[in-house]
Design a protein that fits this description.
By secondary structure, this protein is an alpha+beta fold. It has a single domain, classed as Pnp Oxidase, Chain A (Roll). The protein has four helices and eight strands. Strands 1, 2, 3, 4, 5, 6, 7 and 8 form an eight-stranded antiparallel beta sheet that branches. Helix 3 runs antiparallel to helix 4. It is globular, with a radius of gyration of 15 Å. The mean pLDDT is about 95.
């Protein structure tokens, strides 16, 4: 196992359509994990989510988030980011980021359709700023 460089970590997080698994804490203290589509803005992880979902309510209540992106095939790799979430309901900003996210996961031909679905009132634009990052490659030789 070896630690990824910053450049390797960025490339890994942006490769293809890997989903980020977002972990938050429910009101009762129990963990909650769900995949999200995301992109990077510098080191920040950016995604959208419904304001009234478990994720949205948890991030509003407690801005801490944990994100994990992994490679499921040998030699395996993963990036785990623990950080603080900043939330926005600005539709212009949300539309810009939702378009980038939609293009990444659905392609240019369907990007407008998914942008319109994900950049609407009731959605949140979430930006997770890393506080601690673990990025490991070649988990098995």
């Amino acid at each position: 196992m070896r630690q990824m460089s910053v450049e390797e970590r960025r490339a890994f997080l942006l490769e293809g359509t890997r989903t980020a698994k977002l972990g938050v804490t429910r009101r009762d203290g129990s963990p909650y994990v769900l995949p999200v589509w995301s992109v990077l803005d510098g080191d920040d992880v950016v995604f959208t989510t419904g304001a009234e979902t478990v994720r949205g309510r948890a991030l509003r209540r407690d801005g801490r988030a944990s994100i994990c992106v992994d490679e499921e095939r040998p030699p395996y790799a993963f990036v785990r980011i623990n950080g603080s979430a900043t939330l926005s309901e600005d539709l212009g900003e949300m539309r810009r980021w939702a378009r980038l996210i939609s293009t990444r996961y659905m392609g240019e031909a369907l990007a407008d359709r998914y942008t319109e679905r994900n950049a609407v009132p009731g959605e949140l634009l979430v930006r997770v700023t890393p506080r601690r990052v673990v990025a490991e490659a070649d988990v098995v030789d």
